[in-house]
Design a protein that fits this description.
Helix content: 25-40%
CATH class of the largest domain: Alpha Beta
Low-confidence stretches: 1-6
Number of strands: 20
CATH topology of the largest domain: TIM Barrel
Shape: elongated
Length: 386
């Protein structure tokens, strides 16, 4: 993990708030019903742009004992970084040659077809150990997973494999953000029936999980024995319309954004009226203006849709993007602030002098979701703990 001083030599950087992350973890630990024994922190896709290694270390220190990743490579990277808590690959096994290392490192693997389960068992046999697996059920998202009508036969086949430990059963919700929880309830019922059928046939699966950020807040029936918390771990909600429900149901619950994104002005200049700004001369100044050049662009994760109207905070005031966002730079209007100078900070996401630019505000502006805004931030930008 990089100390805060790592940002001193970077013109653009990401700040990760340790206190905010621990606060959000604490909120969900309070929300979980008493029969739910575990909280899984989902740190896939570089922890939704926040930095998988930093987030996992902070979360592990805060008592989190399960991590969810998208691939075996992510899981092995966490092990190399000293994460000793349980890890589950939620999506797929990306490479056959990762399976032996995953089994050795006690990483739980997903299974949703029998050929893969048998291959995992054979590899575990050669290693003289047992592989830990979780069966993924497709209860309605129509993505990876075994269909409910085929699930009991599949689970019985996996359970018979001699070098496989069937530890978990799980599904993924398709409509959990909806205030109307009818589809989610149908998925919960489907998973519960499968779990009960397994018990009747003498197959005891110790861990069952389905709950995500939204369903964990909106629907206690989704908690099962473990809840998987993704976007809200980072202080963001999956849809804004659930915010009011959260506060009515849990008045004490407040999520704090973990990530701030900052950059540095590299030049300030005055330009006369009718001056072209940026590629294509799409923008021409309507009057004499002062502009600031920022060393950040779409390579860094600022969507080109922020051209002609996106904004950052400089000196606690809005500075609008002028012209097109470039690959590594963008220009903003600082005509309103005569004291702005080279070297001053600019906030892309975060708070400055009481003013806020949030991932939600950015997402609304370009008609996408906050997930996309934060996960698109270039992983090569330095992440620093504050």
């Amino acid at each position: 993990m990089k100390p805060r001083s790592a940002a001193q030599h970077a013109l653009t950087w990401i700040e990760i708030s340790q206190s905010a992350l621990k606060h959000n973890i604490g909120m969900f630990q309070r929300i979980l019903r008493s029969s739910t024994s575990s909280l899984m922190a989902v740190v896939k896709s570089n922890a939704y742009g926040h930095d998988m290694r930093i987030v996992a270390h902070i979360a592990q220190d805060a008592g989190v004992r399960w991590f969810g990743v998208a691939s075996s490579q992510e899981a092995l990277d966490l092990r190399k970084q000293g994460i000793w808590s349980r890890i589950l690959v939620l999506s797929y096994i990306s490479q056959i040659d990762h399976i032996p290392d995953s089994i050795r490192k006690k990483i739980a693997l997903p299974v949703y077809n029998l050929a893969a389960a048998r291959r995992i068992s054979k590899i575990a046999q050669k290693l003289k150990t047992r592989a830990i697996v979780h069966v993924k059920i497709d209860t309605g998202t129509t993505r990876l997973g075994v269909r409910p009508e085929d699930s009991l036969k599949f689970i019985r086949s996996v359970h018979k494999l001699p070098y496989v430990e069937l530890e978990g059963l799980y599904t993924h919700f398709a409509d959990s953000e909806n205030v109307n929880q009818s589809f989610t309830n149908a998925q919960i019922k489907s998973l519960g029936l499968i779990l009960n059928h397994c018990k009747k046939h003498g197959i005891i699966i110790p861990i069952c999980h389905a709950g995500c950020s939204a369903s964990t807040i909106l629907n206690q029936q989704s908690h099962f024995s473990m809840a998987r918390i993704g976007i809200s771990l980072y202080g963001l909600t999956s849809v804004s319309r659930t915010d009011g429900l959260i506060h009515r149901r849990y008045p004490w619950c407040s999520l704090i954004p973990v990530l701030s994104w900052k950059t540095t002005i590299i030049q300030v200049k005055s330009i006369p009226q009718n001056t072209c700004v940026g590629y294509g001369c799409d923008y021409r100044s309507k009057k004499r203006m002062r502009i600031a050049v920022l060393p950040v662009g779409y390579w860094d994760g600022v969507d080109r849709k922020f051209s002609h109207g996106g904004y950052v905070l400089i000196h606690g005031r809005i500075a609008k993007v002028l012209g097109r966002v470039c690959m590594n730079m963008m220009m903003v209007d600082v005509s309103h602030a005569t004291s702005v100078k080279e070297g001053d900070p600019a906030v892309i996401i975060g708070v400055q002098s009481g003013k806020l630019v949030s991932a939600d505000m950015m997402a609304n502006q370009i008609q996408t979701i906050n997930y996309e805004v934060v996960t698109r931030i270039n992983p090569l930008l330095p992440r620093v703990i504050v």
